[in-house]
Amino acid sequence: MTLQKLLDPLTDAEARVQTNVRFVEFFGLPGIGKTTVANLLGNKLQQCNLAVDEDRSAYEKRTFVGRQLYRFGIISSRLADREFRRLSVRIARFVAEGGQATAIDLVREIWHLCYLSAYILDKRSSSASILVLDQGLLQGFWSVFLKSRRRRTSENWLDILSSIGVDDVVFLHLRGDIVTAQGRLLKRGDQSSRMQKASPDGDLEVWVAADRACREMAADLKTGTRAANRAGVLAAVDVGPLASPDEVAERALRGLLLACRDRLPPVGG
Protein backbone atom coordinates (compact mmCIF):
# COMPACT_ATOMS: atom_id res chain seq x y z
CA MET A 1 0.00 0.00 0.00
CA THR A 2 1.39 3.39 -0.98
CA LEU A 3 1.42 6.33 1.40
CA GLN A 4 -1.11 8.19 -0.76
CA LYS A 5 -3.56 5.29 -0.68
CA LEU A 6 -3.16 5.17 3.07
CA LEU A 7 -4.04 8.85 3.40
CA ASP A 8 -6.88 8.98 0.86
CA PRO A 9 -9.62 7.48 3.11
CA LEU A 10 -8.74 9.84 5.97
CA THR A 11 -10.30 13.23 5.33
CA ASP A 12 -7.75 16.01 5.84
CA ALA A 13 -5.42 13.60 7.63
CA GLU A 14 -2.42 15.93 7.57
CA ALA A 15 -4.40 18.79 9.15
CA ARG A 16 -5.81 16.48 11.81
CA VAL A 17 -2.36 15.33 12.89
CA GLN A 18 -0.95 18.85 12.69
CA THR A 19 -3.74 20.31 14.83
CA ASN A 20 -4.24 17.66 17.46
CA VAL A 21 -0.97 15.83 18.02
CA ARG A 22 2.28 17.25 19.34
CA PHE A 23 3.92 14.05 20.55
CA VAL A 24 4.06 10.54 19.08
CA GLU A 25 5.65 8.15 21.53
CA PHE A 26 6.68 4.53 20.99
CA PHE A 27 6.34 1.91 23.68
CA GLY A 28 7.38 -1.74 23.78
CA LEU A 29 9.97 -4.32 24.67
CA PRO A 30 13.67 -3.53 24.13
CA GLY A 31 14.78 -4.74 20.72
CA ILE A 32 11.30 -4.60 19.21
CA GLY A 33 12.36 -1.76 16.89
CA LYS A 34 11.23 1.48 18.54
CA THR A 35 14.18 3.63 17.46
CA THR A 36 14.26 2.37 13.88
CA VAL A 37 10.50 2.70 13.39
CA ALA A 38 10.45 6.13 15.08
CA ASN A 39 13.01 7.41 12.57
CA LEU A 40 11.05 5.94 9.65
CA LEU A 41 7.77 7.36 10.92
CA GLY A 42 9.35 10.79 11.27
CA ASN A 43 10.43 10.60 7.63
CA LYS A 44 6.94 9.54 6.55
CA LEU A 45 5.34 12.44 8.41
CA GLN A 46 7.74 14.84 6.71
CA GLN A 47 6.70 13.33 3.38
CA CYS A 48 3.15 14.34 4.35
CA ASN A 49 4.45 17.94 4.60
CA LEU A 50 4.21 17.92 8.39
CA ALA A 51 6.71 19.79 10.58
CA VAL A 52 8.68 17.21 12.58
CA ASP A 53 10.89 18.28 15.48
CA GLU A 54 14.48 17.10 14.94
CA ASP A 55 15.62 17.68 18.53
CA ARG A 56 15.65 13.97 19.43
CA SER A 57 18.14 13.19 16.67
CA ALA A 58 20.38 16.04 17.81
CA TYR A 59 20.18 14.77 21.39
CA GLU A 60 21.33 11.28 20.40
CA LYS A 61 24.49 12.70 18.81
CA ARG A 62 25.65 14.20 22.10
CA THR A 63 28.19 12.49 24.34
CA PHE A 64 27.07 10.95 27.64
CA VAL A 65 28.26 14.02 29.55
CA GLY A 66 26.63 16.29 26.99
CA ARG A 67 23.32 14.47 27.41
CA GLN A 68 23.39 14.81 31.18
CA LEU A 69 24.20 18.52 30.95
CA TYR A 70 21.34 18.92 28.49
CA ARG A 71 18.99 17.11 30.89
CA PHE A 72 20.15 19.26 33.78
CA GLY A 73 19.43 22.38 31.75
CA ILE A 74 15.92 21.20 30.88
CA ILE A 75 15.08 20.30 34.49
CA SER A 76 16.61 23.45 36.02
CA SER A 77 14.65 25.65 33.61
CA ARG A 78 11.39 24.25 35.04
CA LEU A 79 12.26 24.49 38.74
CA ALA A 80 10.80 27.98 39.05
CA ASP A 81 7.40 26.45 38.24
CA ARG A 82 5.70 25.38 41.49
CA GLU A 83 3.57 22.79 39.69
CA PHE A 84 6.64 21.14 38.24
CA ARG A 85 8.28 21.00 41.66
CA ARG A 86 5.17 19.32 43.02
CA LEU A 87 5.19 16.90 40.09
CA SER A 88 8.84 16.06 40.78
CA VAL A 89 8.05 15.28 44.42
CA ARG A 90 5.22 13.00 43.33
CA ILE A 91 7.54 11.19 40.89
CA ALA A 92 10.16 10.72 43.59
CA ARG A 93 7.56 9.35 46.02
CA PHE A 94 6.15 7.01 43.38
CA VAL A 95 9.56 5.54 42.49
CA ALA A 96 10.70 5.29 46.11
CA GLU A 97 7.52 3.59 47.32
CA GLY A 98 7.60 1.14 44.42
CA GLY A 99 11.08 0.08 45.45
CA GLN A 100 14.16 -0.33 43.27
CA ALA A 101 16.93 -2.91 43.37
CA THR A 102 19.64 -0.41 44.35
CA ALA A 103 19.99 3.20 45.46
CA ILE A 104 21.58 3.97 42.10
CA ASP A 105 18.49 2.60 40.33
CA LEU A 106 16.31 4.76 42.57
CA VAL A 107 18.17 7.98 41.75
CA ARG A 108 18.44 7.13 38.06
CA GLU A 109 14.72 6.44 37.62
CA ILE A 110 13.66 9.58 39.50
CA TRP A 111 16.09 11.67 37.46
CA HIS A 112 14.94 10.10 34.19
CA LEU A 113 11.20 10.58 34.81
CA CYS A 114 11.70 14.15 36.02
CA TYR A 115 13.70 14.89 32.88
CA LEU A 116 11.07 13.37 30.59
CA SER A 117 8.34 15.36 32.31
CA ALA A 118 10.31 18.61 32.04
CA TYR A 119 11.16 17.85 28.42
CA ILE A 120 7.52 17.31 27.41
CA LEU A 121 6.41 20.46 29.21
CA ASP A 122 9.23 22.46 27.62
CA LYS A 123 8.48 21.23 24.12
CA ARG A 124 4.76 21.80 24.59
CA SER A 125 5.35 25.46 25.36
CA SER A 126 8.11 26.18 22.86
CA SER A 127 7.46 24.18 19.69
CA ALA A 128 4.57 23.59 17.32
CA SER A 129 6.24 20.70 15.49
CA ILE A 130 5.44 17.03 15.98
CA LEU A 131 8.00 15.27 18.16
CA VAL A 132 8.43 11.53 17.56
CA LEU A 133 9.93 9.78 20.60
CA ASP A 134 11.31 6.26 20.65
CA GLN A 135 11.86 6.45 24.43
CA GLY A 136 9.23 8.57 26.13
CA LEU A 137 7.06 8.70 29.23
CA LEU A 138 5.62 5.20 28.97
CA GLN A 139 9.04 3.68 28.49
CA GLY A 140 10.23 5.67 31.49
CA PHE A 141 7.48 4.23 33.68
CA TRP A 142 8.18 0.76 32.26
CA SER A 143 11.79 1.10 33.35
CA VAL A 144 10.58 1.83 36.89
CA PHE A 145 8.19 -1.13 36.93
CA LEU A 146 10.86 -3.51 35.63
CA LYS A 147 12.65 -3.44 38.98
CA SER A 148 9.85 -2.34 41.27
CA ARG A 149 9.28 -4.59 44.26
CA ARG A 150 5.79 -3.27 44.96
CA ARG A 151 3.16 -2.30 42.40
CA ARG A 152 0.87 -0.45 44.83
CA THR A 153 1.99 3.05 45.82
CA SER A 154 0.28 6.14 47.19
CA GLU A 155 0.84 7.75 43.78
CA ASN A 156 -0.84 6.17 40.76
CA TRP A 157 1.33 6.30 37.66
CA LEU A 158 -1.66 7.23 35.49
CA ASP A 159 -2.40 10.21 37.70
CA ILE A 160 1.18 11.40 37.29
CA LEU A 161 0.94 10.87 33.55
CA SER A 162 -2.30 12.86 33.47
CA SER A 163 -0.66 15.71 35.41
CA ILE A 164 2.05 15.93 32.76
CA GLY A 165 -0.68 16.00 30.13
CA VAL A 166 -1.64 13.47 27.46
CA ASP A 167 -4.32 15.23 25.42
CA ASP A 168 -1.82 15.96 22.62
CA VAL A 169 -0.02 12.58 22.78
CA VAL A 170 -0.49 9.40 20.77
CA PHE A 171 1.21 6.33 22.25
CA LEU A 172 2.12 3.65 19.70
CA HIS A 173 2.57 0.25 21.33
CA LEU A 174 4.90 -1.94 19.26
CA ARG A 175 3.40 -5.24 20.30
CA GLY A 176 5.62 -8.26 19.67
CA ASP A 177 6.48 -11.48 21.46
CA ILE A 178 9.50 -12.08 23.66
CA VAL A 179 11.29 -14.28 21.13
CA THR A 180 11.11 -11.59 18.44
CA ALA A 181 12.30 -8.80 20.75
CA GLN A 182 15.01 -10.88 22.41
CA GLY A 183 16.36 -12.17 19.11
CA ARG A 184 16.59 -8.70 17.58
CA LEU A 185 18.24 -7.25 20.67
CA LEU A 186 20.84 -10.03 20.89
CA LYS A 187 21.55 -9.77 17.17
CA ARG A 188 22.04 -6.03 17.50
CA GLY A 189 24.40 -6.50 20.44
CA ASP A 190 23.25 -3.30 22.13
CA GLN A 191 25.01 -3.36 25.51
CA SER A 192 23.40 -0.05 26.51
CA SER A 193 19.91 -1.59 26.59
CA ARG A 194 18.29 -1.91 30.03
CA MET A 195 17.50 -5.56 29.26
CA GLN A 196 21.09 -6.36 28.29
CA LYS A 197 22.24 -4.93 31.61
CA ALA A 198 19.52 -6.72 33.58
CA SER A 199 19.85 -10.01 31.70
CA PRO A 200 23.01 -10.26 29.57
CA ASP A 201 22.44 -14.00 29.12
CA GLY A 202 18.82 -13.61 28.05
CA ASP A 203 17.29 -14.84 31.32
CA LEU A 204 13.70 -15.77 30.40
CA GLU A 205 12.36 -14.76 33.82
CA VAL A 206 13.53 -11.18 33.33
CA TRP A 207 12.01 -11.06 29.86
CA VAL A 208 8.70 -12.42 31.12
CA ALA A 209 8.65 -9.72 33.80
CA ALA A 210 9.40 -7.07 31.17
CA ASP A 211 6.65 -8.33 28.88
CA ARG A 212 4.17 -8.49 31.77
CA ALA A 213 4.97 -4.89 32.71
CA CYS A 214 4.29 -3.77 29.12
CA ARG A 215 0.97 -5.59 28.98
CA GLU A 216 -0.18 -4.38 32.40
CA MET A 217 0.70 -0.79 31.54
CA ALA A 218 -1.17 -1.01 28.23
CA ALA A 219 -4.23 -2.42 30.01
CA ASP A 220 -4.03 0.25 32.72
CA LEU A 221 -3.76 3.00 30.13
CA LYS A 222 -6.78 1.79 28.15
CA THR A 223 -8.91 1.41 31.27
CA GLY A 224 -7.68 4.59 32.92
CA THR A 225 -8.19 6.86 29.94
CA ARG A 226 -11.78 5.68 29.55
CA ALA A 227 -12.60 5.95 33.24
CA ALA A 228 -11.13 9.43 33.71
CA ASN A 229 -12.08 10.73 30.26
CA ARG A 230 -8.44 11.40 29.47
CA ALA A 231 -7.67 12.11 25.85
CA GLY A 232 -4.40 10.20 25.50
CA VAL A 233 -4.53 7.50 22.85
CA LEU A 234 -2.82 4.10 22.86
CA ALA A 235 -2.70 2.41 19.45
CA ALA A 236 -1.37 -1.13 19.10
CA VAL A 237 1.02 -1.89 16.22
CA ASP A 238 1.76 -5.59 15.79
CA VAL A 239 5.38 -6.56 15.09
CA GLY A 240 5.81 -10.05 13.66
CA PRO A 241 9.15 -11.85 13.39
CA LEU A 242 9.22 -11.43 9.60
CA ALA A 243 7.94 -7.84 9.42
CA SER A 244 10.41 -5.34 7.98
CA PRO A 245 10.98 -2.01 9.73
CA ASP A 246 9.30 -0.19 6.84
CA GLU A 247 6.23 -2.41 7.11
CA VAL A 248 5.98 -1.69 10.82
CA ALA A 249 6.41 2.03 10.14
CA GLU A 250 3.51 1.90 7.66
CA ARG A 251 1.35 0.22 10.32
CA ALA A 252 2.45 2.84 12.85
CA LEU A 253 1.45 5.64 10.48
CA ARG A 254 -1.94 4.03 9.91
CA GLY A 255 -2.42 3.63 13.66
CA LEU A 256 -1.47 7.27 14.24
CA LEU A 257 -3.84 8.64 11.61
CA LEU A 258 -6.73 6.46 12.71
CA ALA A 259 -6.17 7.44 16.34
CA CYS A 260 -6.27 11.11 15.39
CA ARG A 261 -9.44 10.64 13.36
CA ASP A 262 -11.29 8.55 15.92
CA ARG A 263 -10.79 10.91 18.84
CA LEU A 264 -12.09 13.99 17.03
CA PRO A 265 -15.78 14.98 17.33
CA PRO A 266 -17.88 14.56 14.18
CA VAL A 267 -17.67 17.41 11.71
CA GLY A 268 -20.40 19.90 12.53
CA GLY A 269 -20.99 18.26 15.94
From TrEMBL:
InterPro entries: P-loop_NTPase. Gene3D superfamilies: P-loop containing nucleotide triphosphate hydrolases. It comes from the Bacteria. This is AAA family ATPase. It comes from Pseudaminobacter soli (ex Zhang et al. 2022).
